[in-house]
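thought: user wants a sequence for this fold. calling inverse folding tool.
action: design(structure=
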C-alpha cells in the first residue's frame, strides 16, 4: 500500500482526502497517518509469523492511544520503554500481559508499576536490574516473567547512533567473557523472576539479514550452553526490531513474510544444529510498521535561490518535527503536494524555521522551478521517530497527528498550543 496518491488535478490525497482540504482543516505542519495502511502492515507482520511467534510493535517509533487500539484489534503486542509509554498502553486498553517493558535504566517507580500492572515480560538489561526487578517482584509477592537482553557483538550496517549490538555501547549484557551466561545463572536462582528467554536487538534501519543470522547463531549458542550446563531449555528467542524501510527510492526493504521466513529458518537451522527444540520467536518492529504509513505536510514560506549553489526552500516546521536529518544524516524525499507542475526541476534544500543551519528536512531534492510561497510540500515516510522525537525547540508547537481513513480525517494527537507551553512555565 502506498500512503500518498494524487487526484485528477494532481493534488495529493491520503485515505481518500486531498491535502488542500487537510491543510485547511488541520493546518500545517501536520502528520497524516493512513490508518488502513497502518493496520495492513501490522496485520502483515502478525500473519507473516503465524501462531508460532509474537510480534511486539515498538512503541518508541510512534505511540498514541489510537495506535494502541489499532494494534490491539490487529492482534499485536506492544513493546514500551518508559513509564509514559506504559501508561499510554494501559490507558488505551492494551492488556498488560501483551506488553513488554524495555530500557537500560528503568526507574524503581517504572519497574514497580510494570510488575504491579502485570506486564507480560520485562527485558532485563544489566546485573543491577536483575537484582532490582527480582527484589521488587518478590516484595509484591509476584513472579515476573523476564528475558535477558544480551549484546551479541554484531556490527550492524547502520548509523552509529542506532546500532546496538556491537560491544562498546550501553545496551544489554555482553555475551563476551561469560557475562550473559552468568546473568542467566543469577536470574535462574531468584524466586521473583521467571526467565522465559534471551533477547537481542542489533540496531535499526537494517536491510541486510546477515546481522540477524550472526545474532541468532550466538543466542542459540548461549541456549545450548545453558542446556548443557544447567539442563534448562529456555522457551523463547526475541530478535528485536530494526528492519529498514524505504526513505528514498534507493532503499529496498523486504516484505514481512520474507523476513519472517528468513528469521524462522535461521533460528530453526541453528537450533537443529544445536539439538535444541525450536524456541518461540518474537520480534519488535517499530519503523517497519508505522514509518511508511505517515507523511508530513508543510507549507512553503520563503524561497531563496543561491547562485551556483541551490535554492533554499523554508517550510513552517523543521528539526522540531523531524530531527532525523540533523541527527543521523537521514535521507528523505519531498514532493509538491498541492498541485501538479510541469516546470523544470530545480535543485533545492528543504529547511525549517529554526535558529540553526543544521535545521534541514531534506538535504538534496528536486522541486519544480515554479514553486511558490503557499505551496504545500509532502515529506513521505515520517511515521516513525518523527512525532515521537519532536521537540519544542524555539518554543515550536508540536504538530498534530491526523488519522485518515476511508475519506474521513480525525485528530489522534492534537496540535500543541501556546497555553500547553505556558502551563509548564510556572516561574
Ligand atoms: N526493540 C528494541 C529493543 C529497540 O531498542 C528498538 C529501537 C526496536 C525494537 C524498534 O526498532 P525499529 O524496528 O523501529 O527499527 N530514533 C532512531 C531509531 C532508534 C531505535 C531505538 N530502538 C531513528 O530515528 O532512526
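)
observation: tool returned 427 residues.
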Amino acid at each position: 500500500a502506498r500512503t500518498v496518491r494524487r487526484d485528477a488535478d494532481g493534488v495529493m490525497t491520503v485515505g481518500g482526502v486531498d491535502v488542500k482540504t487537510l491543510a485547511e482543516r488541520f493546518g500545517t505542519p501536520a502528520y497524516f497517518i493512513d490508518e488502513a495502511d497502518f493496520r495492513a502492515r501490522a496485520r502483515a507482520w502478525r500473519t507473516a509469523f503465524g501462531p508460532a511467534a509474537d510480534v511486539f510493535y515498538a512503541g518508541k517509533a510512534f505511540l498514541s492511544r489510537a495506535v494502541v487500539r489499532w494494534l490491539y484489534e490487529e492482534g499485536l503486542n506492544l513493546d514500551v520503554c518508559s513509564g509514559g509509554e506504559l501508561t499510554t498502553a494501559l490507558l488505551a486498553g492494551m492488556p498488560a500481559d501483551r506488553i513488554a517493558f524495555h530500557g537500560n535504566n528503568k526507574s524503581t517507580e517504572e519497574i514497580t508499576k510494570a510488575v504491579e500492572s502485570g506486564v507480560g515480560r520485562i527485558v532485563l538489561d544489566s546485573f543491577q536490574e536483575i537484582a532490582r526487578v527480582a527484589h521488587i517482584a518478590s516484595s509484591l509477592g509476584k513472579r515476573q516473567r523476564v528475558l535477558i537482553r544480551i549484546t551479541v557483538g554484531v556490527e550492524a550496517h547502520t548509523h552509529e547512533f542506532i546500532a546496538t549490538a556491537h560491544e562498546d555501547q550501553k545496551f544489554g549484557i555482553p555475551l563476551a567473557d561469560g557475562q550473559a551466561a552468568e546473568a542467566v545463572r543469577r536470574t535462574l536462582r531468584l524466586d521473583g523472576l521467571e526467565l522465559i528467554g534471551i533477547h537481542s536487538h542489533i540496531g535499526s534501519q537494517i536491510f541486510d539479514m546477515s546481522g540477524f543470522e550472526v545474532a541468532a547463531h550466538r543466542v542459540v549458542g548461549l541456549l545450548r550452553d545453558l542446556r548443557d550446563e544447567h539442563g534448562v531449555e529456555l522457551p523463547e528467542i526475541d530478535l528485536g526490531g530494526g528492519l529498514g524501510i524505504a526513505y528514498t527510492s534507493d532503499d529496498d526493504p523486504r516484505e514481512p513474510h520474507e523476513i519472517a521466513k528468513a528469521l524462522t529458518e535461521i533460528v530453526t537451522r541453528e537450533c537443529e544444529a544445536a539439538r535444541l527444540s525450536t524456541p518461540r520467536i518474537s520480534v519488535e518492529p517499530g519503523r517497519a510498521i508505522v514509518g511508511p504509513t505517515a507523511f508530513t505536510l508543510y507549507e512553503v514560506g520563503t524561497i531563496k535561490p543561491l547562485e551556483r549553489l541551490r535554492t533554499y526552500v523554508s517550510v513552517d516546521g523543521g528539526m522540531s518535527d523531524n530531527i532525523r536529518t540533523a541527527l543521523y544524516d537521514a535521507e528523505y524525499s519531498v514532493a509538491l503536494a498541492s498541485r501538479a507542475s510541469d516546470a523544470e526541476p530545480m535543485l533545492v534544500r528543504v529547511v525549517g524555521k529554526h535558529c540553526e543551519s543544521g535545521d534541514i528536512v531534506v538535504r538534496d531534492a528536486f522541486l519544480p522551478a515554479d514553486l511558490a510561497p503557499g505551496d504545500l510540500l509532502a515529506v513521505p515516510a515520517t511515521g516513525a521517530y518523527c512525532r515521537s522525537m519532536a521537540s519544542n525547540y524555539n518554543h515550536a508547537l508540536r504538530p498534530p497527528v491526523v488519522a485518515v481513513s476511508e475519506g474521513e480525517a480525525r485528530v489522534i494527537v492534537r496540535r500543541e498550543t501556546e497555553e500547553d507551553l505556558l502551563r509548564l512555565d510556572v516561574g
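thought: summarizing for user.
answer: Here is the designed sequence. The mean pLDDT is 95.
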